[in-house]
Structure formats: structure tokens, C-alpha cells
Write a structure and sequence with these properties.
The structure is a single chain. The chain has about 180 residues and is an all-alpha fold. Helix content is about 60%, strand content about 0%. It has helices spanning about 1-20, 35-40, 55-65, 75-85, 95-105, 115-125, 130-145, 160-175; strands at about 25-30, 50. The chain has a two-stranded parallel sheet. It is elongated. The chain starts with a helix and ends with a helix.
Length: about 180
């Protein structure tokens, strides 16, 4: 095991040396804290000791990958959306997570123009605001086809993006205040 660990550590160091800005996420199958610390010291961005359930792993990666100084994706939002039936493979899932985080930090963001909100979200994810709007419409359509219901609301196919964002944010707030 030590030889394999040394090879992994050297590999991470080599990759870090060649690609300074690359995010490196090794998955290891040993519970050795020493190996984890050495991988991080060699240049790993984050190290996961397996096993991880796929939704938890994808949530952790999403949060680490997209967080910046202005907004943080809260891992519990990823888990909340997964529990509602939203799959992380849905186009628009990540912008939806970020949008909910933004609304938790500044609930009044949707009081103004929805287009201004799309533009801010698009800037955050390095996209065009038109793509953000379309991705959110796509996630509503996929959620409707999957039979997802939010707070006994009207059918999703009749819901506007703004309504979906407000409903999900409010439901998440309610759950996060009373987790049990």
C-alpha cells in the first residue's frame, strides 16, 4: 500500500507541476490520514476517502468547484434538490443550486428584473444570461416529466422560473430551520 500511495502522491505532484490551475480531486480507498494529507500537500485540491454515495460525492465536488468569494454553494442545497427528485444530471441543476444560494444571501434579488438576476447568475458561472434562463426552463420541464411536486404548488409546467426559484428557496429555508 505504501508504494501505491507514494506513486499516487508523486503523480499528483507531477500534475500540479504541469498544470498549476487544474483542480485535482483524488479518490482514495484507504482510510489513511497520512496519505490524504500527503496528497493535499502534493497539490490535490481536495481528497475523498471512499466509499462515498454518488449524490454526496457530486454535491461535495460541485460545492468545491463552484464556490468563490461572493457566493458559496451550500452542500445541503444539493442534497435538498436531490431529495426533491432533481437529478444533478439535469441541465440547469448547478445554476439552480447557485441561484438558491444567492437568494438565501439576498432574498430581495428577485424583487427587481428577473433578467438582472439571470445576468448576475450568468456572470458567476461564466455563461450567457439567455442560457441561464433556458436551463432553468429545461429543469422545470424535466421536473414536471419526472412528477416532482414542490409544496403542493400548481403544476410545474405552468410555473415560471421566478416562481420555481422562490418556492424552492422558501421550502429549503423551512427545512434548514427545522431539519427534524
Amino acid at each position: 500500500i505504501q508504494r501505491m500511495s507514494d506513486e499516487a502522491i508523486n503523480f499528483v505532484a507531477e500534475i500540479r507541476g504541469k498544470y498549476k490551475d487544474m483542480k485535482i480531486y483524488p479518490l482514495i480507498f484507504t482510510g489513511s490520514e497520512y496519505v490524504r494529507q500527503e496528497l493535499i500537500r502534493a497539490g490535490a485540491s481536495l481528497c475523498f476517502i471512499m466509499p462515498y454515495m454518488p449524490p454526496v460525492l457530486s454535491g461535495e465536488l460541485l460545492c468545491h468547484f463552484y464556490n468563490n468569494k461572493n457566493y458559496k454553494i451550500i452542500p445541503q442545497i444539493v442534497y435538498f434538490l436531490n431529495s426533491k427528485g432533481f437529478d444533478s444530471s439535469f441541465q440547469g441543476f448547478y445554476p439552480l443550486c447557485i441561484a438558491i444560494s444567492m437568494l438565501l444571501n439576498s432574498p430581495d434579488k428577485l424583487n427587481g428584473s428577473i433578467t438582472d438576476f439571470y445576468r448576475e447568475l450568468a456572470d458567476f458561472i461564466n455563461s450567457k444570461y439567455e442560457n441561464v434562463e433556458r436551463n432553468l426552463r429545461t429543469i422545470i420541464r424535466k421536473a414536471f416529466k419526472k412528477g416532482i411536486v414542490i409544496n403542493n404548488s400548481k403544476p410545474l409546467f405552468r410555473m415560471k422560473n421566478k416562481e420555481l426559484l422562490l418556492l424552492l428557496t422558501e421550502e429549503y429555508k423551512g427545512i434548514s430551520k427545522n431539519p427534524f
